[in-house]
Amino acid sequence: MLDINEIMKIIPQRAPFLMIDKVEEFTPGESCVAYKNVCINEPHFAGHFPNQPIMPGVLIVEALAQTGAVAILSMEENKGKNALFGGIDKFKFKKQVVPGDTLKLEIKIIKRKGPIGVGEAIATVDGKVAAKGELTFAVV
Hints:
- It is a single chain.
- The protein is α+β, with helices and mostly antiparallel strands.
- It has a single domain, classed as Hotdog Thioesterase (Thiol Ester Dehydrase, Chain A, Roll), CATH 3.10.129.10.
- The chain is about 15% helix and about 40% strand.
- The chain has 2 helices and 6 strands, in the order αββαββββ.
- The protein has a 6-stranded antiparallel beta sheet, with helices on one face.
- The chain is globular.
């Protein structure tokens, strides 16, 4: 298990853009399971949407990408580097994510060649799929 301070030693994102709160388990270069507690005081809820707060899909994707970054950037050869989006493919949004939800974020790295890779990503709330798809990354 990694707490927020240990996560910040691996990935460069910081508040208000750090989208994961804890890591339950990870295998460097292979997989990661993390969690985000969705809170009403997050700035995007002021406008998305007034009187009906819903976490934007792009932020769910970002939380999944940061989860994948923990897996990739925890590899010895990638320490101190950054992982950038190379592509987002086959993404589907199945469930609204709202304040009070705990988002479970899972990434499995399915392909790597040099600095480029692909991860299968799935976000769930209470065991129900909120979003899933593939993320392509580039380590720089």
